[in-house]
C-alpha cells in the first residue's frame, strides 16, 4: 500500500495545484484504481530441471538499453555468488546450488528477470593463433559474421572465444570448459547455444522451439536408434547443441569431462569408450564418443533430460545440403512471389514477423518440412583453418562453404536492398527491385 500511496503522491505533484477540487477527485479515483488493479506478476522457478528464473519483481523503474529493458548500470552491493572467494570458473571444481545462486542474482538484478526462460547466448570460437590455411582466417571471419547476423536478428547475445580455459582441454574438448565459464559469466541466460566454428546458420528465420524442451536440459542433433541400438559414436553430433544454464548441466559437464585429455586416465578411457561403440575408428576418446558413452551407460542418470533432435536440422550434413541450395533459393523465391506481404520491404528488427508469415506460406504451399532450408549446415570433416580435411577435397569444402555462406547471407542482405544472384560469387551483388524479393537477378 505504501508504494501505491507514493505513486499517487508523485502523480499529484504534476497536476496544477490551483485546482484543488480536481486534485482531490482525481487523487481518490486514481488511488481506487491502483488499489484494485492487479499488479504485473512474473512466474517463479519451481522446477529445478528447467531453471526458469523469474523472481516477482516490479521493473517500473528499470533503465532501458537497446529496447530490451536491461539496466546495465545496476549492480547492487548485495552479496551474491560472485562474492564467494571459493568460486571457480574451471572444470574439476564443482559448483553447488547453482539454481539457487542464479535465482538470487536475478532477484538483485530485476531488469533481467522478465523473459529469462527464453534467453539464449550463442557460444562459438576458434584457436588463438593464425590459420595455416591461406584462406582460413577469412573463412573464420565470414563464419563468425554469419553467427553475429543470426544473433542480431533474433536478439541473442554471442560470445566468441579464442582462448583455452583449460590448458589440457584443447581440440574438440575446448567447448566444455568454455561452456562452464560462460554459465557463470551469464547467469541471466537460460540457454547456452554451442555452435562449432564450421557450422553455418542457413535458415536465418528459424529459432529453436524452446518450449518443446521445457523438460530437458540438453538438446543435441541425432538419432536415438543409432545410439541405443546400433551403439554408433555418430549417433549424435556434439558440434552443435543447446544446454540449459542449471545445476544439472554443471554436474553433467563434469561427468562428461571425466573422459577428457586433462585426466590421467585419458588413454584408458579411450579404450573403454572404443570397446563400447560398434564403429569407433580409433581408441582416442573425443567429446562426441564420450557423450554417446554416457547415454549408453548412464541413461537412467542423464538420458531422461537429454533430447535427441531430428525433426529439423540442428546439425545438417553439408555434403547433402550444399547441392540443394540453388533449388531451395528458387523455391522460397516462388513462395515469396505469391505472398504480397513477403515482398514488402521492412526493417531488419521486425524480421521475426515476416519469418512467421513465411512459415505459414510454406505450409500453405503444400511443401514437406524436409524441403525447408536447413537450420544449420555443419561442415563436419572440413577444416577451414588447418586446410586438412577428412575424406573431402579442398574444392568440395571451400565451394561448399562459399555456397552455404552466400545462401545465408542473401537472407540478410535482402533487408539492406541487395542480393547475390550467384551463390558461388561472393562479390557480385544486384539491387532488389521494389515489390519483388527474388534471390536471382530480375529478368
Q: Helix/strand/pairing class, anyone?
A: alpha/beta
Largest sheet, spatial ordering of strands: 2-1-3-6-5-7
Distance between the first and last residues' Cα: 68 Å
Number of helices: 14
Which shape, going by the Cα principal axes? globular
Low-confidence stretches: 1-67
**H/E series, N to C?**
HHHEHEHEEEHEHHHHEEHHHEHEE
Biggest sheet features: 6 strands, mixed
| Helix content class | 25-40%
* DSSP strand tally: 11
Strand content: 5-15%
Average pLDDT reading: 85
Radius of gyration: 25 Å
Can you describe this structure?
The protein contains 14 helices and 11 strands. It is α/β, with parallel strands linked by helices and 443 residues long. A 6-stranded mixed sheet has the order 2-1-3-6-5-7, with helices on both faces. Strands 4-9-8 form a 3-stranded mixed sheet. Helix 4 (136-154) links the parallel strand 1 and strand 2. The model is unreliable at 1-67 (pLDDT under 50).
What are the main properties of this structure?
443 residues, alpha/beta, 6-stranded mixed beta sheet, 14 helices, 11 strands, globular, disordered N terminus
How do the helices and strands line up, and which of them pair or pack?
Elements lengths: L1 H12 L6 H17 L61 H11 L11 E6 L10 H19 L2 E5 L13 H11 L5 E5 L3 E3 L16 E5 L1 H5 L7 E9 L2 H11 L8 H11 L10 H11 L1 H4 L3 E4 L6 E2 H4 L3 H13 L13 H14 L11 E3 L15 H20 L4 E2 L10 E2 L12
Parallel strand pairs: 1-2, 1-3, 5-7, 8-9
Antiparallel strand pairs: 3-6, 4-9, 5-6, 10-11
Helix pairs in contact: 1-2, 4-14
